[in-house]
């Protein structure tokens, strides 16, 4: 294998590793937040331990010494808690959070092929911390020199520069081998007896769950350079082929650290353990076929556009059928085409629905980061908060998910900053010192509701009224007439913020007005209910799916209109010489075809032939299968818009398909070119 | 010649296995359930044990564990049917060195036993 192939394989392996790391870090974050609440929860400690262990195994396999070292130390701390009864203190959790942050940075650097952060700072932090109590460094070196098989069944291995090398043992089984997974398990077990197995693909976990192929890759180190391991594997029944090669060499070109010496006094250990709970290893998932695939959203969008095209074709088919029928003789063909069009309609509708469903994602995707965020914010504000989440499996269109992410962050920040009182204040008001914030999500008919509840100070309508007057948003007179509910609604007014000065936490230039606008863009809605002294409840009402289309934004007499791109064939700049008069009406000749030219402004005013003075562009389109050029003042660009119904009365207006709120927050009418004339 | 303990409750399987091994010159001892197997292991000290999994009184996994307790270095080959995947996994976790799948070809059996005698 040449260097280029090696590098490509390394990048491939790395990508799979990184996606696993993402998952593990997200879980770890959740677990740490939980752990802070329940520091003696053995299952949580075990989970965090396992995540670190798995990352360590993968990092070792890829020759990423810094990652190995950091995860190893973190693992050691957890191990002391897990098996030596060391108490998990709040400071300890802080260090674990810091390690997590480091690993995130590390992961991002790896993903972007950038220089990785130096582990020195975080290692020093862990060691200093360890020095305060018992010594982690000590326990590490002890592990490194103790018996060959430590308590948890993992083996220790020295990975530093002049120590052992990593080898890749590839075992190919006979294709007709019975009980393949057991055979793989046997090989892994026996090889583990004569070498230090770092990880394998498929992992032990996969093997035990029957996710095997006829190739087993074992990453190991051994005194004898893996010779005995290879011999052992060859000796196992149903093994067709065994190969052994240096692995770290294959990646060292890209990772100088892999062959360099490791800083710090602590020995490095990469564990592989036979006990199920800590044995996931570094799974190369491409060898096992899961039931899901990752799809680029751009592909889904593309598919959606294609469905749009299908719908247009169907309409044209129907028109052709109608024309044929009118001509009389070929009505049989016409009927056939009509039947075909009807079928095409059903198919495209189902296709559309299928793609809509593929766009759904569970709220978990954005919820997972909240526990950590709440924890950090509460700490910074000197408040105590218990945070609860429910319904994170509720699914929503990914666009909706994207749109509500920032608003939710804002609402949660508000709950901590303005809602929950300081512990002293709370006690003085007869409340428990710890405030409570709940984030809930559930389905209700055709909507998804997401609610943030807090048991804080609530919103005082009088305070809001005063603030509104002070900011010059309303007069004293106007404010006096407002009900409590209406007063609370004032927080949605642009430029409103109840605190004099934006605090570090809430002040980010976005207010509740932005929250409301964001939600309205996607046909959503936000409601606030609050009671002074008892708390606040902010509820987001969200559509399950969205009708999204790509639209061309055009300007006409200072108003913005959205025109579905699917109904625009071409856009031309109008030059004076282009316009001719045919039968007394303006028309354009484009490459020999004649397009009657009507003015958008005129058409909207029922005077379609009256040319607007400032029309500079023509959209070539067709209505009722006839070519048509539509004159507009200006082109503003293309955007993906969410179609909103106009309501019962306005929807009857000719040529208007609906309305939308553009990315910048301005409303725009969506035109139906077919019905415009 | 090395001694092999053949453990199987089915007389047909047991005698067939024993005959194949005897033809190769191995000295063969037999047991028809797990408890008997542990007892015979202690008495006869065979180099290799061929252990069926499903047996009355004490099954193959129990017998394997019993033997391993008496002699951690015992070399036990599990004899299994295709549907017993999880049992074999457990056996390997408990220290079984190898397994063969029933119905087996004589050569497979001989090869497995020979390997255990060598190591």
TrEMBL record, chain A:
Record localization: Cytoplasm
The record ties this protein, via Gene3D superfamilies, to: Histidine kinase CheA-like, homodimeric domain, Histidine kinase CheA-like, P2 response regulator-binding domain, Histidine kinase-like ATPase, C-terminal domain, HPT domain, SH3 Domains
UniProt keyword annotations, A-Z: ATP-binding, Chemotaxis, Coiled coil, Cytoplasm, Kinase, Nucleotide-binding, Phosphoprotein, Transferase, Two-component regulatory system
Domain Histidine kinase, by residue range, is 288-546
CDD domains listed in its UniProt record: HATPase_CheA-like, HPT
The UniProt entry, under SMART domains, shows: CheW, H-kinase_dim, HATPase_c, HPT
* Residues bearing the modification Phosphohistidine: 53
Is the keyword Phosphoprotein assigned to this protein? yes
**What are the GO MF terms of this UniProt record?**
ATP binding; phosphorelay sensor kinase activity
List, alphabetically, the GO terms of the cellular component aspect.
cytoplasm
What's the domain of life for this entry? Bacteria
Q: Which InterPro entries match?
A: Bact_Chemotaxis_CheA, CheA-like_dim, CheA-like_homodim_sf, CheA-like_P2_sf, CheA_P2-bd, CheW-like_dom_sf, CheW-lke_dom, CheY-binding_CheA
> Taking every annotated instance into account, which residue ranges of this chain make up the domain HPt?
6-110
Q: Where is this region: Disordered?
A: 134-156, 250-276
- Describe the location of the CheW-like domain by residue ranges: 548-677
Reported EC number(s) for this entry are: 2.7.13.3
Reaction it catalyzes: ATP + protein L-histidine = ADP + protein N-phospho-L-histidine
Coiled-coil segments on the chain, per record: 7-38
PROSITE patterns from the UniProt entry: CHEW, HIS_KIN, HPT
This chain's function reads: Involved in the transmission of sensory signals from the chemoreceptors to the flagellar motors. CheA is autophosphorylated; it can transfer its phosphate group to either CheB or CheY.
Name of this chain's protein: Chemotaxis protein CheA
UniProtKB/TrEMBL annotation, chain B:
Q: Which InterPro entries match?
A: Bact_response_regulator, CheY-like_superfamily, Sig_transdc_resp-reg_receiver
State any GO BP term from the record: phosphorelay signal transduction system
Reply yes or no: does the keyword Phosphoprotein apply: yes
One Pfam family recorded for the sequence? Response_reg
The cross-references to PROSITE patterns, in alphabetical order and at most eight, read: RESPONSE_REGULATORY (PS50110)
| Sites of 4-aspartylphosphate modification | 52
Q: Where is the Response regulatory domain?
A: 3-117
Keywords (A to Z) from UniProt: Phosphoprotein, Two-component regulatory system
Which ranges of the sequence are coiled-coil?
Answer: none
Protein name from the UniProt record: Response regulator
Q: State the species of origin.
A: Candidatus Fermentithermobacillus carboniphilus
What broad taxonomic lineage does this protein's source fall under? Bacteria, Bacillati, Bacillota, Candidatus Fermentithermobacillia, Candidatus Fermentithermobacillales
